[in-house]
Write a structure and sequence with these properties.
Length: 291
């Protein structure tokens, strides 16, 4: 009798351990499924998004792939968690460029969100693609994109001019293909591009899952976004950048000074870009005087 009860107790304990192991494995599978699900959904959405605009990018000479910096977020992996916890990287030096869509605030305030969101995203993607392989996109800032580089390429100003022209070629394609008369489509020609460039030092750091560049010089282009330049589409460059460029690149710039809050008076030069447009990139009805 005692032996029988002992065997029954052992069998019950074995069953309990087996049931516990099965429950543990099921819980682990559920956690893994939840971790992978956002990646699958994000990848599907990103693929669909790429297909929607790839043909237009090809027609304006850009890259047909979705710019890496604008992809939807996915669940962090072990490697990404390690990167997030990594210490700040060493200080670097080079150009810091803010590409900003002029007329954005008025455009968003006067148009349907569903339509304006699509157009603005397309134009931001165009800016990123136009500078891919030349400057590195480090931050997306609502109506603009912030780029950094190392050293100063003698063709830097030409790159920025190309970005401006590509922006308007893409806009022209959009307007030629539009099939609706919503406010966003009607007001799209009011959007244009200004580029603010500086040369300085910066470091990289991560806050949570977001990468950022850090430093006083990073602030300069952002403070100069509001200025007294008598144009709404231009390149505005600091003396720190201009003096590192070849004379031929500096010559078209008009001397200018701005009083930037907290940074004092800054010596600059600006170049109005409106004259660069030709029949292929001109958008009828472009805005005037918007900053």
């Amino acid at each position: 009798m005692v032996q029988t009860l002992g065997r029954q107790f052992v069998m019950r304990a074995d069953l309990d351990r087996a049931a516990h192991a099965i429950a543990q494995r099921a819980a682990m599978r559920a956690v893994e499924h939840r971790r992978r699900a956002p990646q699958v959904v994000s990848a599907a959405i990103g693929t669909q998004s790429t297909a929607l605009y790839a043909r237009e990018i090809e027609e304006v000479g850009g890259d047909s792939a979705e710019p890496a910096g604008l992809q939807l977020d996915v669940a962090p992996t072990e490697n990404s968690v390690t990167a997030i916890e990594s210490p700040r990287m060493a200080t670097m030096e080079g150009p810091l460029v803010l590409a900003d869509i002029s007329g954005y605030t008025n455009f968003m305030a006067a148009t349907e969100l569903e339509h304006s969101d699509v157009l603005v995203r397309r134009m931001l993607n165009t800016i990123v693609s136009s500078l891919k392989g030349r400057l590195e996109m480090v931050q997306l800032e609502g109506d603009g994109v912030f780029f950094v580089g190392e050293g100063v390429a003698p063709e830097l100003i030409e790159w920025l001019e190309d970005s401006y022209l590509t922006f308007h070629r893409r806009m022209r394609i959009f307007l030629d293909r539009r099939e609706c008369s919503c406010d966003a489509c009607a007001k799209a020609p009011e959007l244009t591009l200004k580029l603010i460039a500086h040369y300085g030092r910066y470091s990289r750091q991560r806050i949570g899952e977001t990468g950022q560049v850090h430093g006083v010089d990073v602030i300069v282009p952002h403070r100069l976004a509001k200025n007294s330049v008598p144009s709404h589409e231009y390149i505005l460059a600091t003396r720190d950048l201009l003096e590192r460029l070849p004379e031929a690149q500096r010559a078209p710039f008009v001397p200018h000074i701005e009083d930037a809050a907290g940074l004092g008076r800054i010596s600059l030069g600006y170049r109005d870009l409106a004259s660069l447009r030709d029949d292929r990139s001109t958008v009828t009805g472009s805005a005037s005087g918007r900053r």
